[in-house]
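Hi there, hope your week has been kind to you so far. Thanks so much in advance, here it is:
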Amino acid sequence: MMKNLLLLFSLLLFTSCNTTTVNEDEVAIKKVISDQQMAWNNYDLEGFMQGYWKSEELKFYGSNGVTYGWDNTLTRYKTAYPSKEHTGALKFVLNDISKIDNVSYYVMGEYHLERSVGNADGIFMIIFKKIDGQWKIIADTSC
C-alpha cells in the first residue's frame, strides 16, 4: 500500500513539474510573439526580427518561396514593407502551441494587418527552438 502511494505521489509530482515547464515555455514563446507584434506596430523591423534565430540556417517560407538566413529574411521584410503605411497595425491570433520535444514547439496562428494601403490577412506556422536559453523562431511558413 505504501509503495503504491509513493508511486502515485511520484507520478503526480513528475506530471505537475512537466506541466509547469510546458506552461513556462508557452508563456515565454507568447512573450516573443507579443514583442514582435509591438516592434512591428512601431515600424521596427529589426526589433521584429529579434524573435528569429540570427543564423544563416533560419528558413522563411512564403509566397515567393524559401528565404534562407536572418539577414536575407530582414531584407525580404524591408522590401515587402518599405514604410509604416505598409506595415500598418499587426494583430496575431494564436490557434495552437504544441510541444515537439524538450527544446522545440510549433505555433499555428493568423496574422491580421490593418493598413492604409490595403489590409492583409493570412496564416502561419512557426517552429520555435530554445537556443542558448532563449526561444527563437528557426522556421516560419507564412501565407
Observations:
- DSSP finds four helices and six strands in the chain.
- The chain has one domain: 2-142.
